[in-house]
Structure formats: C-alpha cells, structure tokens
Specification:
This protein is of the alpha+beta class. The protein is 37% helix and 21% strand.
C-alpha cells in the first residue's frame, strides 16, 4: 500500500497479463516490427503500470533483468528489437509478469526471486516478448472494450458473497480499486502460443528450453504453498489473487515441447546477480506480518480477523475470507469525517449503483476520531451488508475500511475495526525489510539447518524448498548455491 490512494480506477482496459492458464494453439507467423502506433500506446500505459505496481526497482538487479530481457527479445525477429523493447523490474511483492503493446515488458522482483537460473528468467521474459510479437494484446482489446474485466478478486466477491448480479458486479468494481487486477487476461490459446514462442527464443539464444517448464513448476508450487500458509484449501487462487490460477496445467506441455534440448542455465551467475534483492513487502508500502498489517511511513497498524488473509496492493490492502471481503485504503479528506464515509459509499456504488449509508455514527478508536456507516443491499434472493469505517489521523489525512459480507455477518470485522491504531516512531523504526541472501552450501549443511535461518516464524522448510525448487526427496550438495530470505539492514 503506497502512501496515497484515490477512488479512481486505473485506465487499464487494454493491458494484458501473462503466465495465465492455457490449453493449446498454433504458433503465429513471424512478427512485423513494432509500429509507431504500438509504441505510442505502450508509452501511454507505461507510467500507469509503474505506479500501479510500486514503481521500478532500482539497483544492479534491475540492470541485469533488463539485459537478459533485451537479449531474449532479439530472438523474436522484431526489427531493431534491443532498442525497441523496454524491460522493467517492478518493486512489487506479487509473482507477476506481463506485457503491453509497443514492446513494454515487465516482471516483478518477487517473481524473479522465485526463479533459480538465468534461463528461467529468459523464459518468462521471452514468454512476454511472444505476447508482443504475436500481437495478443491487440487481438484481445476489442473484447475488453465490450466487457469490463473484473479480475479474480472481483469474481470471488461477486460469486461467493454477492452472487452473479449487477449489484455484485458494480460493488466488485469498487472493491477492485487499486488492487492491481484491472488488466486483461489473455486467452488460453494465446498463453500456450506465448509459451511456445518463449521456448523457441530460449533455444535460439542457447538456453536450456526446459527452463520454461521449471519456472512454471515453481510458480505452481508457490501458489500451493501460499494457499497452505493462509489456510486456503483451493490453491488455484494465489495469495495475490492473480490471473495466473493454474500454471501446473502448463508444466507438462512446456516440458514436452522443450524435448530433450540442452543449453545453458547460468544458475550461479543468476543467483549471484540477484543476491541482496528485496523480498516480500517493501516497508515503504507497508508490510504484512502474520495477520497484522504495519505501515511504518503512514504510522498505522491493524489486525485482520482470524481466518482471513491479506494482500498488500499498491493502492489498497485487501482482506479476504470465506465470510466476507474488505479493503483498507485512503481517499481525499477535507476534515469532515462524515462526508468522507459517504464519499466512500458513493465510490463503491460506482456510476450505475447509488449507494449510501443509512446513517453515519461517530466514536473513537484507540484515540482516533472514527466515523462509520452501513448499508444493506438487496441482491436477488439474498442481501449483503456494506460497512465503511473511517479514521482521522490528521486534519488532512484519513484511512478507511470498506467491507462486504452476507447480511447479518458484518460483525466478523468488528475486531479489525477496533484494532486500527497509530504506531509509535520506535515501532516504525523496528520494521526491517527481508532480502534474498545467496549462500554456498557447506559440508554438514542440511535443508533443515539452512531453513532455520529463514526470516519467518512459520513454514521455514517449506518456504526454503519452494524458493530453491527443491522437491521433497531432493538433498543439498556441498558447493551449490541456494537462496535464503533474511532480514536486511
């Protein structure tokens, strides 16, 4: 969650996410060079995407990712590919990669941290180059203009809680504000085409083409681990509510198409180059520690209800559970907390749904002036409760929760509402980021002993295995490099 929020939805109707589930399809013909129109379109969306995904990550790791990305782009056959592509490493804690028209390619640092060699990095970026080369974004654009894409979180809200209705869809759009999910998904056929093109580019560049299947396997394992750690039974919905629900379904296909091809992986080079990279939440955007969210810059903290899990987006923190959904964010504040609450309801309702609280009440929460209101909305054969809790932190700064739950069950969020508080400067100073620490296995080191150094309270061994693509029967060898996640400085 960045330091400023608005109620406006991002203009991302024609943007396109990658690494989603796929089935099959034929490889498109050789691509024409990037046109001026495509370059202009990408340039328009580029700053929006940087803002939505935490901006660019700075440092030598970003330069390395850019270099690998441009090298693999050359294999696409696009004219003047190296200079025509813009490759960005994003300062985001979600596992994501995507592309937009005009040769703009993106990967988050979190996804890069999940990789274990340069061939995997080249494979993911090659997959994105494939989307650009095949003009997948343009082919999906008309469909996006006809139907607004809500994203996975919106589907969960409107389906599980609200039902399939206009009210559910409208409110879901409100809850999606700033959630990093307002981007168009590629078709399954297009995803497989991009996988195939990525494998082709890997082979041409001299990389091991099997890297495409291994990185997809790591993503599938991470999705499953996230579900396990958060107490979710359905691992097909990742912790970050991505549009990449089932990479496991593509692993076998990618491996079959790679065949027995050989090539370089540059494992040690890759691990050396990403050493020290930020992992997980950036404290400047707030951090999630267990069921607690802490923002050292905004000086606030709250605790999610038992059984719920949180996702820290650039503009909002989402709180997800079986009995309801919520977001914590902020909006323009003029010093009137009552009008602030009403403005949140208006924003949640959107243009087609007039939404207002039955009343706005005042109280105090841990010394913070607080205003709250609720509305019960008819939704076909059922009803839902919308609740907004707002807190004044200063004369020009307020934060709020917006929650949605089946009628009569909004009290689930009462402990969370009461937990919002201002933290001290010493508490803020105590927040230390996690970073990737690449170490060389010594004689006597075991998975258990190295896992004990992971900067987590739970799931240390499981996190270590997934991070290093180690199966349940894999063992360590003295001299090999592995990744740890440790506290930085």
């Amino acid at each position: 969650m960045a330091t400023m929020k608005t109620f406006a939805l991002a203009s991302t109707a024609t943007l396109s996410l990658a690494l989603t589930a796929c089935m099959g399809g034929e490889i498109p013909s050789a691509s024409a060079p990037i046109t001026q129109q495509e370059a202009a379109q990408g340039a328009e969306f580029h700053p929006q995407l940087l803002q939505e995904f935490g901006g660019t990550y700075q440092g030598p790791q970003a330069a390395y990712v850019e270099s690998v990305g441009k090298n693999i782009a050359v294999q696409s056959g696009l004219g003047n590919a190296r200079s025509s592509f813009t490759v960005s490493l994003l300062n985001s804690s979600v596992n994501n990669a995507f592309a937009v028209p005009g040769g703009y390619i993106y990967s988050t640092r979190q996804l890069v941290a999940l990789m274990n060699n340069e061939a995997e990095l080249a494979g993911v970026l090659g997959h994105e180059v494939g989307h650009v080369a095949a003009r997948h974004s343009q082919r999906r654009q008309s469909a996006a203009q006809q139907n607004q894409i809500l994203g996975v979180l919106g589907a969960v809200i409107s389906g599980a809680v609200l039902g399939d209705s206009q009210i559910g869809n409208t409110l879901s759009r409100g809850f999606l504000q700033g959630s990093q999910l307002l981007t168009l998904r590629f078709s399954r056929k297009q995803e497989l085409q991009a996988d195939d093109l990525g494998i082709e580019y890997l082979t041409k560049a001299g990389y091991d083409p099997r890297a495409m299947s291994t990185v997809l396997a790591s993503l599938a394992a991470q999705n499953s681990l996230d579900a396990q750690l958060q107490g979710r039974g359905n691992a097909s919905i990742p912790a970050w509510a991505s549009t990449h629900p089932d990479p496991a379904s593509r692993v076998r296909t990618a491996l079959e198409k790679a065949g027995a091809g050989t090539g370089t992986t540059n494992r040690d080079t890759f691990l050396t180059r990403i050493d020290g990279m930020l992992y997980g939440d950036d404290p400047k955007q707030g951090v999630i520690e267990g069921n607690r969210f802490i923002h050292p810059d905004l000086r606030l903290s709250f605790t999610a209800p038992q059984g719920f899990y949180m996702v820290n987006g650039t503009r909002a923190v989402s709180i997800n559970g079986q009995s309801g959904k919520a977001q914590m964010s902020m909006g323009p504040y003029n010093g009137n907390l009552d009008s602030y609450v009403r403005s949140v309801f208006t924003a949640l309702g959107g243009e087609q749904q007039q939404l207002a609280p039955t009343s706005v009440q005042r109280t105090t929460t841990n010394g913070l002036p607080t205003a709250f209101g609720s509305a019960r909305v008819n939704n076909g054969n059922s009803q839902v409760d919308i609740v907004v809790y707002a807190y004044e932190f200063s004369n020009n700064q307020a934060f709020h929760f917006a929650t949605i739950s089946p009628a009569g069950r909004s009290s689930t969020f009462d402990p969370m509402f009461r937990s919002m508080r201002r933290i001290s400067q010493s508490e803020a100073n105590a927040i230390v980021p996690r970073v990737i620490d690449v170490v060389t296995v010594r004689r006597g080191d075991t998975i258990q002993s190295l896992s004990n150094r992971m900067a987590y309270d739970t799931g240390k061994v499981e996190r270590f295995r997934v991070l290093n693509a180690l199966g349940t029967n894999d063992q360590l060898q003295a001299g090999q490099k592995v990744k740890l996640v440790v506290r930085g400085r």
